[in-house]
TrEMBL record:
This is Sugar phosphate isomerase/epimerase. The keyword Isomerase applies. Keywords: Isomerase. It comes from Dictyoglomus thermophilum. Residues 28-266 form the Xylose isomerase-like TIM barrel domain. GO terms for molecular function: isomerase activity. The keyword Isomerase applies.
Length: 271
C-alpha cells in the first residue's frame, strides 16, 4: 500500500490539508522528514516558474506527486464546470487542462472534486448537468491525449449536490466511458453519505484509483470512530494497490498527524 500526504499553501483553517505553510518547498521537505516519499499537491494554480522549481525539488528529494487537487481553484476563485457564465466555466476547464499537463510530467492523477460544481437551481437541473458533462468531455479529451487519469470524488451533501454517493459517481463515470476517468473515494465523505461503506467500496471495485483517509471528525485516521478495519477488508477485497492520501485537518499539529497516520496505516495493513 502506498501512502501520500496532502500539501497546500495558504489555505483556510478548515481546509483538510496536513502540510500547509506559506512555503511549498519547505512542506515537501517536511513530508520527507516525516517519512513520506509521496505527496498530494492541492494548488489553486501553477505558473511555469513554480512548476520548474517544484520539479527540481521533487527530483532532488525523490518525491512522487500522487495526485493534484483542483478544489482550491473553486474555493478561492469560484471556478467551476457548472457556472452559467461562459468565461468562468471556460477558465475552470482551462485550469484543469493546465493541471493535466503538469500531471503528465509528474506521473500524477488529477482530482475533479468541488470544481465540477453543482446544480444551482433544481428546476434547471438538466441545464447544469449538461454544462458539467460538456466541461468534463473537454478535460477528458486533454486527459486522454496526455494519458492522465482524472478522478471523480463523491463529496458529502454539505459541499455539493452533484455526486454525493459512490454509486452516483460510478454511474457518472460509466456513462462517460473513458479509461482515463475513474473514482476517488474519501472516508470522511463516505461516512456521511453511505449506508454501508464496505459494500459501497466493493461495488466500485477496480474503478477506484485513489483514496483519501480521514476519520469522522476529519482528524487523522484512527483518532475517531470510523471502522477502518472494515474499510481495509474492502480495499483488500477489490485488489486496490494505488495510493491512500492522508487528507485531514492538521490537529493537534501537522507533525503528529503525519506520524500518527503512518503508524496507524502500517498497523492496519500489516495486521
Ligand atoms: C473536499 O472535501 C475534499 O475531500 C477534497 O479532496 C477536495 O479537494
Ligand atoms: Mn477528499
Amino acid at each position: 500500500m502506498r501512502i501520500s500526504i496532502t500539501v497546500a499553501k495558504d489555505v483556510s483553517e478548515n481546509f483538510p490539508v496536513v502540510l500547509r505553510g506559506k512555503d511549498l518547498l519547505e512542506s515537501l521537505r517536511k513530508a520527507k522528514e516525516y517519512g513520506y516519499s509521496s505527496v498530494e499537491l492541492h494548488l489553486e494554480d501553477i505558473e511555469l516558474k513554480e512548476f520548474l522549481t517544484l520539479t527540481r525539488v521533487i527530483e532532488q528529494e525523490d518525491i512522487h506527486v500522487s495526485v493534484l487537487g483542483t478544489g482550491l481553484a473553486y474555493v478561492k476563485e469560484g471556478l467551476s464546470f457548472s457556472n452559467k457564465d461562459d468565461f468562468i466555466r471556460k477558465e475552470a476547464v482551462k485550469r484543469v487542462k493546465k493541471f493535466i499537463e503538469v500531471a503528465s510530467f509528474w506521473g500524477s492523477k488529477v482530482i475533479i472534486g468541488s470544481i465540477r460544481g453543482r446544480v444551482r437551481q433544481l428546476n434547471e437541473k438538466e441545464v447544469y448537468i449538461k454544462l458539467i458533462i460538456d466541461s468534463f468531455k473537454e478535460v477528458l479529451d486533454e486527459a486522454e491525449k496526455n494519458r492522465v487519469t482524472l478522478l471523480v470524488e463523491p463529496l458529502n451533501r454539505y459541499e455539493t449536490n452533484f455526486i454525493n454517493k459512490v454509486e452516483e459517481g460510478l454511474e457518472f463515470i460509466k456513462n462517460l466511458s473513458s479509461e482515463y476517468l475513474k473514482l476517488h473515494l474519501d472516508t470522511f465523505h463516505m461516512n456521511i453519505e453511505e449506508d454501508n461503506i464496505k459494500e459501497a467500496i466493493e461495488k466500485a471495485k477496480s474503478f477506484v484509483k485513489h483514496f483519501h483517509f480521514a476519520d469522522n471528525q476529519r482528524k487523522y485516521p484512527g483518532s475517531g470512530h470510523i471502522n477502518f478495519e472494515e474499510i481495509k477488508e474492502a480495499i483488500i477485497n477489490i485488489g486496490y494497490s494505488e495510493y491512500i492520501g492522508i487528507e485531514c485537518l492538521p490537529l493537534p499539529n501537522a507533525e503528529t498527524v503525519a506520524k500518527e497516520s503512518l503508524k496507524f496505516l502500517r498497523g492496519l495493513f500489516l495486521s
